[in-house]
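The aim of this short unit is practical: by the end, you should be able to scan a pair of folded records and say something sensible about each. We start with the first protein, listed as its amino acid sequence and then its structure tokens.
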Amino acid sequence: MLDVMNSTEYEKVAQQVYQAILATDEVETIEVLHNVQITGRSGVPHQIDVYWRYLNAGVEHQVLVECKYYKSTIDLIHARNLLGLLTDIPNSQGVLLTTMGFQSGVVNLCNFYGISLKRLRDPKGSDWDGFIQKVEIEGIFNRNEYVDFGLKIDGNDEESIATMADGNGVSVSLLDALFQDGTAKPQLAATWLDRNVPFDQNQIGMPLITALTPANTFIVLPSGQRVKILSLHVEYMHSSMTLNFSFDAMDLVKGVFEDFNTKTIDYTLHH
């Protein structure tokens, strides 16, 4: 939702939208301002809700955006007022912006004189026609909870013998340790265990035991030295959790900026 309470807040949101759009345009934006006074050729100052000034091919242009935060369609008087501003302020383009829409006379007059008609409105369900608006996912998250371990080191492995011969006693928490299969990238022991300890959906909640005898797996010590695992006795338990996730694109969109004539959405304003 646009979540605006009055015309001033609506104008400031319109300024934000134009700043976002114009930042991607090929023209060189000089400024996008809210609630400014521009003096026309007549010498009369005019209040402009959103004023955009830019350069294109070295020529300065001005866009005068009149914002109408109304709960009904815009009548002809507002189009005539904007046409008067464009007449008095040279080299300017006009945009009439509102929430609901425009009466037929407004559309005819503005189309004839090249005044753009835009709507900045709340999003609606039909904006996602042809697209996915809502996604609901239900899944099951399975995991192993490790209770205790028994570890045997391969006393015949030359690298392990050299490591232990250094005589540096090292205390390592097994779940926080790094395991390395051969020369592969080291990984946390918990990750390695999840990949190697079997999971049986029919044994959830039951105390379980398994014995692993990896062919070429090492514990990597903080010093970078390694010792080879001969066998690993693991006590563990399966747990399972059902996860529900829902997503509605409507919750992400604050407002929709569209061309009134073509119904083309020029920009979506996100929260």
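Turning to the second protein, read its sequence before its tokens, just as you did above.
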Amino acid sequence: MSSYLTVLAIALLPVGGNVLGSLTAEMMRVSPWIIGAALHAAAGVAIAVVSVDMMPWALDRLAVWILVAAFIVGAAFSILLKWGVEWGRQRFAAGSAGAWMVYMAVAADLLSDGLMIGAGSAVSSGLGLLLGLSQVVANVPGGFAAMANFADEGVKRRTRLLIAGSFVLPVVLGASIGFWLLRGAGETLENAALAFIVGVLLLATIEDLVPQADEPGAARWISTIAFTAGFAFFALLSTYIG
């Protein structure tokens, strides 16, 4: 079993991918269609996380009615998130609601990363490290797309850097919940938590990230290739890393 500090250190691996993507977006000026393609790639990664890793794991270990109930609660929570994002946008006027929902989709992905790392590390430090390493490169498109999107909407550079730094929060929160609250709580509760995150992540991806990705008007073949590449990359990474 890993110590809590070790778990936090491992949890910073996936957020490193997001920060790398964010800094890349800061160092280069990109066309709107590239932002759209990056968002589609991030959507492909998110769908792969759900369909390749999280749902098969939960389906094998959770009664379907519990999985569905947890998913519905997660979906309802995503609606509350959207209302909260819209309220915050109107109050602080930094970017559109769509841009912030893209951020929330990326944050939900990081929350799931932290949750899996925390729960996995409670069993074995090797398992937690494996989960963390598998997410580093996969999270680069999400960070890049989120920051490029904010830049395209005229959000100030200082604000964008603060947003990029805030990616640390959801993964640390997820790792803490996974390590302290879910370890020893029983398989049902652990996997219900994963199903809840699936509801948040899937709804944020389909209802917000994909429509935002379509706004720049990239050619269909470009968006299709980007989405497919994101999905295929994570699926292969997950399979070959374990």
